Amino acid sequence: MVTIIAAIANNNALGKNNDLIWHLPADLKRFKNVTSGHHILMGRNTFESIGKPLPNRTTVIITRNKEYKVEGCFVVDSIEKAIEIAKADTHIFIIGGAQIYKQTIAANLVDQLDITQVHHSFDADVYFPEIDMKIWKETAREDFKADEKNNYDYSFITYKKR
Would you say domain 2-161 falls under CATH 3.50.50.60? Predict the structure, then answer.
């Protein structure tokens, strides 16, 4: 199973200046729980915004830079090679960024979308591709109100391919 996991705003905003725009501790906690023990695939910019390999996960970085190396991580030059490295994993997670999301969806490499929908619109410089409801079907949803730790209403939504 290959799953894209992303937090996106109402206007599909993902981030700005290679960083997240909002802070939702509930989303970060869920991300950690869901991806722990699995391969996480990401572009170089996403890795650099995180700054280090995440604990209890196998990090695979996708970059065209053949000289790029990071201790403790796999580095490859294509999404297909990243998936090949992770193929023994029962659940592979693609964690960004926008170009990697777009390419994996366009290449039909994704089985599921695990989306945190932040119920607010933001000024951004990277956006998630439009979710085509002819291809994806919502199969699960949990809705939450803003609270003392999470500044925005949000939903955890699972989409599976039709």
Answer: no
* Per-residue pLDDT reduced to its tens digit, 10-56: 999 999 998 889 999 999 999 999 999 999 999 999 999 999 999 99
Percent of the chain residues topping a pLDDT of 90: 98
Q: What is the pLDDT of residue 18?
A: 85
Amino acid (one-letter) located at 154: Y
Token pair of 95 as six digits: 């964690």
Domain boundaries, the chain: 2-161
Q: Are 104 and 94 in contact (CB under 8 A)?
A: yes
Q: Please answer whether residues 31 and 115 qualify as being in contact, where contact means their C-beta atoms are separated by less than 8 angstroms.
A: no
